[in-house]
Amino acid sequence: MQKVVDTFIQTANAFDVEGALALFTPDAVIDDVSVGDGFVGTEGIRFYLEQFFVGYNTVSKLLSLDKRDSFNATARLDFRGDFGREIGILKITVDSGGLIERIDADLE
Length: 108
Description:
Layout: H1 2-13, H2 17-21, E1 24-32, E2 37-40, H3 41-54, E3 59-67, E4 72-81, E5 84-94, E6 100-107
Parallel strand pairs: 1-6
Antiparallel strand pairs: 1-2, 3-4, 4-5, 5-6
């Protein structure tokens, strides 16, 4: 789980949308309460990454990672970008192959 989270942060910080997408299952979901919407599948997640990471020049730093089991963890991140600074929580679920199936995202 640590590797998946680290790689997601690295690819998102590099604005490497294709690299980040490779970490997700084709039918993955990002449900982001802070923006009031869910993003489904490869195209939905691409839109999310392009709008909220690339579009706002967002750079993230992992503050903590609480692994509940082999498939679920909660990451606390420091997000900085054109919007200012926010602390966010990502509840991440991966499949047996280590690909991200779901992220439930919110701000503190």
